[in-house]
Amino acid sequence: MDQLAAMRAFTRVVEAGTFTKAADLLDMPNATVTKLVQSLEQHLRVKLLQRTTRRVSVTPEGATYYEKAVRLLAELDDIDSGFQATQNRPRGRLRVDMGSSTATLLVIPALPEFLARYPEIQIDVGISDRHVDLISDNVDCVIRGGELTDLSLVARPIGKSAWVTCASPGYLKERGTPRHPSEIEQSHLVAGYVSTRTSRVVPMRFARGAEEHEIIGTPGIRVNESNGHVAAALAGLGIIQTFWYMARSHVQAGTLVPILDEWRPARYPFYVVYPPNRYVSNRQRVFIDWLADRFGSMLV
To answer: Quick one: pLDDT at residue 85?
Structure first.
């Protein structure tokens, strides 16, 4: 039995919740993962997992073994990474996840600089506006914004984005330009952004001094993806409130017009997030450091 391979297979099954998903993450046949875990149980003479038709649960003995195995595997990775670090050559595959606008407008255009510095790192970028599960989806780190609800994760601040409320010139010519947030509710259409996490429209927020307003408005259209949200405003389907970095090029081109500039809410924070119990590899560390160094300037 390859005990190291068996330990890796076992820990991945625990994290993924099923043998099938663990096999996909390990890029192994399902039967190979099953055989490795069974061999490990026979070697230890203890049952590590309880199997059902839908999911795998961990026995008390399995939970204890998992904690020790994760620490041991992390130490082995640390040894490998330490040798790579001494050669200043971080290498290997890095899996990151982020929202569509963050990926297309900020990170991907800047990646040539990172990859020129670290040519032996391969990056898999997952793009969606939904929140992934870092453990079961086998993601090394994610970029998230706003209030962080999962306090079990490690979150490193990397920057803040200003907001802008805007609409197309055609829309404003037809409907007029609101001078106060309350006018949006009274006589305007809103292209609403629907959160993929809550399935609800995210309200527009306005603040000027001590006065604050939170507005949903009358939806002309609702969109659950950030690039589509901006496209709705460009098409004249209503007023939007979005990040300045998303609207900047359109404002400069004159295809979107900022409104209510004196009513901007507080800047929106972004974080790079990763699991606390997973070893931070050298390739992950340099990527997080690069994000922290570059991201803030990309938001301006």
So the answer is: 53
CA angle, residues 7, 155, 138, in degrees to nearest 5: 30
Q: Is 194:244 a contact under the CB 8 Å cutoff? A: no
pTM of the model: 0.71
How many CB atoms are located within 10 Å of the residue 83 CB? Answer: 10
Domain 163-266: CATH architecture, name and number where available: 3-Layer(aba) Sandwich (3.40)
Domain boundaries, the chain: 3-85, 89-161+269-299, 163-266
Which amino acid appears at position 128 of this protein? S
CATH class, domain 3-85, is mainly alpha
Tell the CATH topology of 89-161+269-299: D-Maltodextrin-Binding Protein; domain 2 (3.40.190)
Q: What is the DSSP string of 108-161?
A: HHHHHHHHHH-TTEEEEEEE-SSPP-TTTTT-SEEEEES----TTSEEEEEEEE
Angstrom distance (rounded) from CA 287 to CA 207: 35
pLDDT at 88: 59
The C-alpha atoms of residue 295 and residue 300 are separated, in whole angstroms, by 9
